């Protein structure tokens, strides 16, 4: 008898690195409606904790994620059939992940499908394995994708690749994912977690004020929503910070800097 060990997404924290783990391997880590508030709570906790400097997102088992439960999307529309605009709650959760102030590394431990492809694109660095593959079945299912997800596809992968994936439902293997920029690197499966940890600790060693400011600015640029006044204020804050003094001093002394986010 097989015991189902599936749970809602898990959060663990090890020093400056938090790990979010999709944990329904028997269902290819499909994301259920009840998982959305859990993921939102995890993201809110991470965002509030200045001691967390980087985040890893991964899945348990041989799949990263089969995406969001499609029947739940239909149910959410049917709950208010007279609403002028239907809201996809999955997209709201992905937007929250994208807005995390810390760099997020996605360790794609296998196939990534449907809405999980957008979850991966919301991350700042994506690592894959040789058996990684992706597929966006929206057009085959009659699903019009949500706006922020389409924006991420275009800003990360480019207009033509986004068209191929959305309108023709093309599947991509790991090599194609690498060539289009869906993943930045392919590593042996047994080395994926270590590679993700190394990337996370590299990000955690950077100056947090500068990293958070530049991530917010880059996301705003991708959305064509950059506020020049806010950008200038953040830039000035970093130029006047103790962190930049520490960074310059450590560079001159040929040692690793110790930043305190101030």
TrEMBL record:
This is 3-hydroxybutyryl-CoA dehydratase. Signal peptide: none annotated. One of its GO terms (biological process) is isoprenoid catabolic process. Belongs to the enoyl-CoA hydratase/isomerase family. One of its GO terms (molecular function) is catalytic activity. Pfam families: ECH_1. The lineage of its organism: Bacteria, Pseudomonadati, Pseudomonadota, Betaproteobacteria, Burkholderiales.
């Amino acid at each position: 008898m097989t015991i189902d060990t599936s749970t809602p997404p898990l959060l663990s924290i090890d020093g400056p690195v938090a790990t979010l783990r999709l944990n329904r391997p028997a269902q290819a880590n499909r994301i259920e409606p009840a998982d959305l508030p859990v993921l939102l709570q995890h993201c809110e906790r991470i965002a509030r904790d200045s001691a967390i400097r980087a985040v890893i997102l991964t899945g348990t088992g041989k799949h990263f994620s089969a995406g969001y439960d499609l029947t739940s999307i239909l149910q959410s529309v049917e709950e208010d059939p007279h609403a002028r605009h239907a809201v996809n709650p999955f997209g709201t959760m992905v937007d929250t992940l994208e807005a995390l102030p810390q760099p997020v590394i996605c360790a794609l431990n296998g196939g990534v499908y449907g809405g999980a492809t957008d979850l991966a694109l919301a991350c700042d660095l994506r690592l894959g394995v040789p058996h990684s593959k992706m597929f966006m079945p929206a057009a085959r299912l009659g699903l019009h994708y949500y706006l922020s997800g389409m924006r991420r596809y275009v800003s990360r992968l480019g207009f033509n690749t986004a068209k191929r994936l959305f309108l023709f439902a093309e599947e991509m293997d790991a090599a194609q994912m690498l060539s289009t920029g869906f993943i930045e690197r392919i590593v042996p499966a047994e080395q994926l977690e270590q590679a993700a940890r190394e990337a996370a600790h590299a990000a955690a060693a950077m100056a947090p004020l500068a990293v958070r400011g530049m991530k917010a600015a880059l996301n705003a640029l991708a959305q064509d929503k950059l506020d020049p006044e806010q950008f200038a204020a953040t830039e000035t804050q970093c130029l006047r910070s103790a962190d930049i003094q520490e960074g310059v001093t450590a560079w001159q002394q040929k040692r690793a800097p110790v930043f305190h986010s101030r």
